[in-house]
Amino acid sequence: MSKFTIAIHGGAGTISKKSMIPEKEIAYFKALNDAIDAGYRILDKKGNALDAVKAAVIELENNILFNAGKGSVFTNTETHEMDASIMDGKDLSAGAVAAICNVKNPVELAYTVMKKSEHVFLIGKGAEEFAKQNGIAFEPDEYFYSEFRYKQLLKTKKTNETALDHSVDPDSSSAKASEDRDKKFGTVGAVACDVNGNLAAATSTGGMTNKQFGRVGDSPIIGIGTYANNKTCAISCTGHGEPFIKAVAAYDVSCLMEYKGFSLEKAMNKVVMKKLLKIDGEGGMIGVDAKGNASLIFNSKGMYRGMKSSDGKAAVEIYR
Questions:
Q1: Across the beta sheet with 294-298, what order do the strands follow?
Q2: Residue 63 to residues 68, 72, 143, 190: CA-CA distances in angstroms?
Q3: Collapsing DSSP states into helix, strand and coil, what is residue 265?
Q4: Hey, which residues are catalytic here?
Q5: pLDDT at position 163
Q6: pLDDT tens, 117-134?
Q7: Taking the CB of residue 197, how many other CB atoms lie within 10 A of it?
Q8: Residue 210: per-residue pLDDT
Q9: How far lies 305's CA from each of 8, 21, 283, in Å?
Q10: Among 173, 184, 250, 268, which one has the highest count of C-beta atoms within 10 angstroms of its own C-beta?
């Protein structure tokens, strides 16, 4: 029986303690702990890693603090376009969706694509039709609405910029807001190793504030934002999607482990602290291996993150 472990993230970027009000900090810690507990309860009952990561991500999607599901940011046309992916390391099965609207839990739809279709990746209206045929829950626009997020959209529209995070301060000065826009990333994700040494990973995001042209980042792309393989690792990424796509970030960690014999931590460090930094790829990733070892690595100033393992190790952190 293997040591079992779950790790989660809620986004990375310029997250400083001095800019965090105490009430919001408490809310973030509670949200992260709730997500860890949702996944860990399944693992503790000898459940599988796939169900654990799905449960943890659903918990984060249902929390308005995070840029996924309920907390998703606004697009240029004042809608919410969400992306998600999930992968099972046992047999490399995977499901992903992008540019979907009104789906309550995008990760649930990604899971259903994996389990009930012959495909891996569905997008837009077709993905929504598939969701309806399979009884996936939808919510009206009002469910996803947040005054805070709407103010962010109005602020970014003034300068015709895009913002890479749910927590840009809509009331901050123009210069500071512009600086922060490039430095915060609000994707959520989870990785797990169960008692049988099976691995799984899942990632979900609302994308960029004021995004246009149907832009899709790294989160729903298997091998980039999400990857799981029992031979190596399970990885979920958060960051500026374009550099992560160019680096094939999640799969590269697996390759370094499989072909060069790197440990999980060494491989993740190589990708996050060297390869991504060379191409201005700011952000981070979480990972577990088949022995239940976890690593949470980022090159930004902070990352909402946490983990819990059956050997008693547990941590929930925000800042560097």
A1: 226-228, 233-239, 283-289, 294-298
A2: 8, 10, 11, 15
A3: helix
A4: 187
A5: 58
A6: 999 999 999 999 999 999
A7: 18
A8: 86
A9: 6, 18, 12
A10: 250
Tokens of 25: 């900090």
For 101, which DSSP code? Answer: -
Question: Tokens standing for 269?
Answer: 């460090």
How big, in percent rounded to 5, are the helix, strand and coil portions of the chain? 40, 25, 35
* 49 Cβ contact list (under 8 Å, min separation 6): 43, 88, 89, 192, 193, 194, 198, 199, 200, 228, 234
Identify the CA nearest to 10 among candidates 237, 184, 186: 186
- What's the pTM value of the predicted model, to 2 decimals? 0.93
User: What are the φ/ψ torsions at residue 36 (nearest 5 degrees)?
Assistant: -60, -45
DSSP per-residue letters across 160-224? T--BS-TT--TTS-HHHHHHHHTTEE--EEEEEE-TTS-EEEEEEE---BT--TT---STTSBTT
HSE (CB half, 13 Å, CA atoms) of 72?
31
List the Cα angle 319/252/249 in 5-degree steps: 45
- The residues near 126 (Cβ < 8 Å, ≥ 6 apart) are none
Those residues of the chain that have pLDDT short of 70 are 160-185
Show the tokens assigned to 284.
Answer: 């981070």
